[in-house]
Design a protein that fits this description.
This protein has helices at 55-62, 64-77, 86-106, 115-122, 135-140, 143-146, 151-158, 175-188, 194-197, 201-214, 217-239, 241-248, 254-264, and strands at residues 15-16, 35-36. By secondary structure, the chain is mainly alpha-helical. The radius of gyration is 25 Å and the shape is elongated. The relative contact order is 0.09.
Length: 265
């Protein structure tokens, strides 16, 4: 979300203002439990804001008791009301550096990581102890934003299924990735030798349909068993993390930096 309304930002779903927010001041409107639209109405007075996302500041201002508390906190400390403080900005930079290193490691391109990202990742992530330091942090700590679910999770769980998220950049923990690797292996075998001669889209479509029909339950269970074995190895690794950290503490490559980040968690 942007601090100000409009601009390039996603349109969020409507939400319910949490009931555990600070109590409103005497004579002020009680917004607890009320529906909050995350976009301006189509008949807004300002034509430029019609249907546009509200932004962090406008959302907080509509939560009257939270905005009053934030204003009083800033006035008491004689600090400026900012959208995002330096501490929260540094924390975001630290997370971005971790993300860049993880992506490079997943693609096998350790040399593509810049020294700045490695330095940022090795630094301790700043923690903002002040809960009212800026608008960004105040809104991020609201109960409805903390409990917000991704859209794909909402769709899956609303149909009665369980949604389990896998760790990022760890395709070895996803059985479907192993099945796709098996499909590519089958496509390169003599049984599917024509794919090596005619690499055209219709031919590849036929091959995918054919290997999908040939896929057995035993193959899927085998891939799932491999995933569980790999998860067990990661669990054993975390228990031995203290010993392994001694061997990689002096490693300056991207992989070593990524390993240190995992152990720090």
């Amino acid at each position: 979300m942007n601090i100000n309304p409009g601009g390039k930002q996603r349109k969020l779903c409507d939400t319910i203002i949490p009931r555990n927010n600070p109590d409103p001041a005497p004579g002020e409107e009680d917004t607890h439990g009320k529906l909050q639209r995350m976009c301006f109405p189509n008949d807004h007075n300002d034509p430029k804001l019609r249907g546009q996302p509200k932004g962090v500041k406008a959302v907080l201002q509509e939560r009257k008791s939270v905005w009053d508390r934030f204003t009083s906190e800033c006035n008491a400390r004689r600090t400026k009301m900012v959208g995002k403080c330096s501490s929260c900005t540094k924390s975001a930079v630290h997370k971005d550096a971790e993300r860049h290193i993880a992506l490079a490691e997943a693609m096998g391109q350790d040399d593509a990581v810049s020294p700045e990202d490695i330095t940022q990742a090795d630094m301790e992530a700043p923690s903002a102890e002040d809960l009212w330091c800026c608008m960004y942090r105040v809104l991020s700590l609201q109960e409805d934003f903390l409990s917000e679910r991704p859209l794909i999770q909402i769709v899956i769980e609303d149909t009665g299924h369980v949604c389990l998220f896998l760790p990022r950049f760890h395709c070895e923990l996803n059985p479907i990735e192993m099945l796709w690797g098996y499909a590519k292996y089958r496509a390169c075998t003599p049984y599917y030798s024509r794919a090596r001669c005619i690499l055209k889209w219709p031919v590849m479509q036929d091959i995918v349909v054919q290997w999908t029909e040939d896929l057995s339950l035993q193959r899927f269970l085998s891939c799932s068993a491999s995933m569980l074995a790999m998860s067990s190895q990661y669990a054993n690794f975390s228990r031995r993390a203290g010993d392994i950290l001694m061997h990689i503490s002096k490693c300056s490559c991207a992989r070593g930096a990524r390993m240190r980040m995992r152990l720090a968690r």
